Amino acid sequence: MSVLLDLLSNVAVNIAEENYELKSAIISSLFPGIISILGFIITYISMKKSFINELKKQKNSVALEKMSTMPFEVLTLMDEMIHQDNDESKESSLLHFQEMMNTIYSYGSEESIRIISTMQKENYAISKNPNARNIYRMMSLYVLLATQIKYDVTEIAVCPKLWFEMRITDYKNESREIIKANNQLVKELKLNDKFIICD
Question: Which of 17, 92, 131, 150 is the most exposed place for a label (fewest CB within 10 A)?
Fold first, then answer.
């Protein structure tokens, strides 16, 4: 009987030892596998995030490159429009304006697209009724467009008043109408409050 008990005891000890070795083997093979899977998931998430950031950076870089000279072009076009003296110069200005619209729509901010869209809408209205032309409003649209694009590209907000003071010889006499047109457009188009001209 004691031999049988010894035998059963040895079998139980052997089974316990085998279970322990089996558990140890399972744990020692599973642990590196789990670590590898976690490492793969973390690497995948990190690489995906890096790729998305790089793609966004490239998109911003292209838009920035395309828009970097646009404030200058807008103001140059405004000068061309003011000094038109024949049909040929009008045709050239119109082509320049169309190219500018395409570039701004393709790469500009929502605000700059709203401004140029309003410009075009008002051009259509003026072509049907030349008496509807408001020179202060048109000048303000050009200056606000240049100001908005400058802000989009450089994050520097400049008050449009500075341009009017710099370019309008009798700004003091015209200021009331200019301020009214400018501020009305800023509110209408929901532009940056820094573009409002204070009296």
Answer: 131
pTM of the model: 0.69
pLDDT at 31: 67
- ∠ CA 170-174-185, rounded to 5°: 135
To 10 degrees, what angle do helices 70-82 and 87-107 make? Answer: 160
107-113 contacts, C-beta under 8 A, 24 or more apart: 107/62, 107/63, 107/66, 107/67, 108/63, 108/67, 108/70, 108/149, 108/152, 109/148, 109/149, 109/152, 111/148, 111/152, 111/189, 111/190, 111/191, 111/192, 112/145, 112/148, 112/149, 112/152
Surface-to-core class of residue 145, CB atoms within 10 Å of its CB (0-12 exposed, 13-18 middle, 19+ buried): buried
pLDDT at 94: 81
Answer yes or no: are the C-beta atoms of 94 and 80 closer than 8 Å: no
SS3 letters for 127-166?
Answer: HHCHHHCCHHHHHHHHHHHHHHHHHHHHCCCCCCHHHHHH
